[in-house]
Amino acid sequence: MDKKATSANGMVASDDPANVKLSVWEKTAYSFTDMAGNLLYVTISSYILYFYTDVFGISAAGAGAILLVARIFDAISAPVWGSIVDHTHTKWGQSRPYFLWLAIPFAIATFLAFTAPQIHGTFKLVYAGFTYILAAGVVYTGIQTPITAILPSLTTNGQERINANSFRMVGGALGSFITSTFALPLVTFMGKGDDKVGFMWTMSIFGVMAIILLVLSFKGMKERTIAVQKPIPFKDSLKATVGNHPWFILVVSFVIYWVAQSTRNGISVYYAKYNLGNEQLTSVFNGLQVLGIIATIMIPLVVRVTNKTMTMIIGLAIGAAGQIMMGLVGNNFTLVIIAWIIGIFGASIAVAMPFSMLADTVDFGEWKSGIRAPGFLTAVGSAFCIQLGSGFGAYIPSTIMSAAGFVANKTQTPQALSAIHFTFIYFPVIIYAIVAAIMCFYFKYEKMETQIKADLAERHAKETAGEEV
């Protein structure tokens, strides 16, 4: 049996050497978690609106309402899952068991979400809403939460954590690339003209792949630094938000940003099908998202030259430039693709920054209130924002399209085509401008970070000295 030692903060840690270098296999296993998650979740975020309107036969307004209500429910579940994982203690660890426990439910729930049974009216709306909440909310959030939570338990070596997270990012990008590139061609091939059948077969294939990846990730990783401490009461977690202005700025900005991100992903299939005349171009649009890795690699350099806030604003500006260019080049396919790639570079920078900046708001919250609540602050600042923003990113464009007279699988009127064009091209530009304006308020808090870290280090030193006396 391993010996245990109790630290000054009440945490219990194993004496096993946790400061280890992870094997290539273990880091690869970690990458499988995000690969599996994106394999199914990106399919949902990219194609569920199209599936509802053009395959299942739900109106654009009805589909948008379903996604909005579901996303609000999903957003609420994010901090709940964070608490569940924090209170999990098994022989396999805290986070790792969920990759095994939720692998099959995740695949089944996603399959059901893309199944179109012969039902009508209210029953159709209820079925769509229930299966969507189950797949994209309850089960996916249960997968996504431990993906982030497990990293500190794999090793205490800071460089190894960075390396493992890089593997994870590559795995996630590959998962997105697979579903974005091959989903619609598989639907066409497997369905042989019947998209209902095509989606069922495609999701069966992706589901089996996700199960295998999650089981391999469960088997390939080991939680070495499992610490147990008294959970922070929920009311104390809320106190960490009081006066935490940079956290509120990030939360508001990230929610609004994900309205644009969801719109770009969800409306691309409509733009390709109705405005460009070829829905298979959606696979090209989404497949090119993998190029965002190039921009992500450049982020540390840009931050060193400028700062984190400016880096995010630069990303928003590049993304807006790509969108505007796409709107100006007409149907010239080559120029459309170039503009789309520029937009990908900008979006990849902008979407990455809030994740790294959230850690600084945890420090600010502790500095301001004396309460450190990383789980709650990061859960709300990431999963909550993504879910809520994505809901509005589906609802608002679908409402605009519906008001313009959009009817699925019909020749669209000029008004409907203009609505699709606006929501896909210029609506994200407006969102980017709003987010950039909000982020300007973050500059002064970023300038305070050095002093905050120094103050916290001094405070922790005094607390430790007091406990030793």
TrEMBL record:
GO cellular component, one term: plasma membrane
Keyword line: Membrane, Sugar transport, Transmembrane, Transmembrane helix, Transport
Gene3D superfamilies: MFS general substrate transporter like domains
GO function terms (MF aspect): symporter activity
Transmembrane segments: 47-70, 98-119, 125-154, 166-187, 199-221, 242-260, 280-303, 310-329, 335-355, 376-396, 416-443
A Pfam family of this chain: MFS_2
Top-rank taxon: Bacteria
UniProt GO BP: carbohydrate transport; sodium ion transport
InterPro entries: MFS_2, MFS_trans_sf, Na/Gal_symport
Protein name: MFS transporter
